[in-house]
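Title: Comparing notes on inverse folding

I've been comparing how different people in this forum approach sequence design from structure. To keep things fair, I'm posting one structure and asking everyone to reply with a full sequence. Here's the target:
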């Protein structure tokens, strides 16, 4: 191997990079001697050195055929070859070991690049398979459920002998790692109110969520809050009743040109929640309208409101539109209308957004909390 590498360097320059090597058995060569074949990469911009000629390794000096500089170069070359061949077997063995390790590393990288085949057909014990099926039924999806159960199998205290309780505990730990909560204490503006734009498809619960965010003491309930209703039919009866009960200011602005006027009246509030009009995201001119809201209001945050009762495929299709507005958080509603609370994890993974708040039911002051993974875990493993 060292002879082959040196031969390549003499022929193509010192910057050659070894890509592959293999041994050729004596039975496949004309002189019945074993050979080593190597493949190297060279920089084509570097001019090659003089052609290689077989080295003279005898103790006798080679006959000079040129000037003094050529004779000196030839002697130096012969000396290098002689030094290599005169090395102790231990040194040659060490070089071969390093080259073999490089070859093995190349093979490992090649296998990793082929995808996710390393554990795709792994067979789990019965308890693990049972919990895997349960997580799929609860909406985690095949890819995420399998990833969670594989990690649980690796980290469960008793491995294949773990009990259901131990497996579930390990799965919960993995889910806590996957969940992304939004820090609601961030985003406070020093130059004016914190303006939060609630966007989402028709019927996802934006108006109800605006009231819940304004009322809950662990969210914005202890701050001066105003809700801007942009519904073309005016504020709903529920919104009016909430204002009388809670004292939250409701500002009615049906047209875009009215928003600029309302901005001048908002400085006395800590938080302003803007309830955008419900409409299909696929309707014509809807996106340009949403863009105008963003330009005029310059919101501190944009929360994408998502109903957990929706099918994942439809949810992602409509969410793709709203992602163009660059939301920085998601709000999940209607947990009481789904048996698949685990859908939270594919939603987080696909949208790559943290969860600002979660809600179920219609009780304004109770059925909401900031993004909390334990809320989801309870509905996957504890209920039913």
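Reply #1:
Here's my take.
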């Amino acid at each position: 191997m060292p002879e082959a590498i040196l031969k390549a360097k003499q022929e193509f320059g010192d910057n050659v990079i070894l890509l592959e090597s293999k041994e050729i058995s004596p039975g496949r060569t004309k002189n019945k001697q074993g050979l080593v074949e190597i493949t190297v990469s060279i920089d084509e911009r570097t001019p090659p050195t003089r052609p290689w000629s077989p080295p003279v390794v005898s103790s006798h000096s080679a006959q000079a055929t040129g000037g003094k500089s050529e004779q000196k170069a030839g002697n130096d070359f012969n000396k290098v070859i002689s030094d290599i061949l005169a090395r102790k077997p231990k040194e040659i063995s060490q070089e071969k070991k390093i080259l073999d390790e490089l070859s093995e590393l190349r093979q490992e990288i090649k296998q990793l690049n082929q995808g996710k085949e390393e554990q795709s057909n792994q067979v789990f014990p019965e308890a693990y398979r049972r919990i895997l099926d349960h997580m799929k039924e609860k909406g985690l999806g095949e890819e995420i459920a399998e990833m969670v159960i594989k990690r649980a199998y690796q980290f469960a205290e008793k491995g294949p002998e773990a009990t259901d309780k131990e497996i579930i505990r390990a799965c919960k730990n993995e889910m806590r790692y996957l969940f992304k909560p939004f820090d609601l204490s961030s985003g406070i503006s020093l130059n004016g109110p914190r303006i939060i734009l609630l966007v989402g498809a028709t019927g996802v619960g934006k108006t109800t969520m605006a009231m819940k965010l304004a009322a809950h003491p662990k969210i914005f309930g202890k701050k001066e809050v105003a809700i801007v209703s942009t519904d073309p039919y005016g504020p709903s009866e529920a919104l009016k009743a909430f204002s009388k009960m809670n004292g939250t200011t409701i500002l009615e602005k049906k047209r875009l040109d009215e928003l600029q006027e309302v901005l001048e009246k908002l400085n006395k509030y800590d938080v302003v929640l803007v309830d955008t009009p419900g409409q299909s995201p696929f309707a014509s001119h809807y996106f340009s309208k949403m863009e105008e809201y963003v330009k005029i209001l310059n919101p501190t945050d944009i929360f994408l409101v998502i109903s957990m009762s929706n099918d994942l495929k439809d949810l992602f299709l409509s969410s793709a539109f709203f992602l163009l507005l660059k939301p920085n958080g998601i709000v999940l509603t209607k947990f009481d209308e789904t048996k698949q609370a685990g859908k939270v994890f594919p939603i987080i993974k696909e949208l790559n957004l943290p969860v600002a708040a979660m809600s179920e039911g219609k009780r304004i002051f109770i059925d909401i909390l900031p993004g909390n993974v334990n809320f989801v875990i309870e509905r996957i493993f504890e209920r039913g």
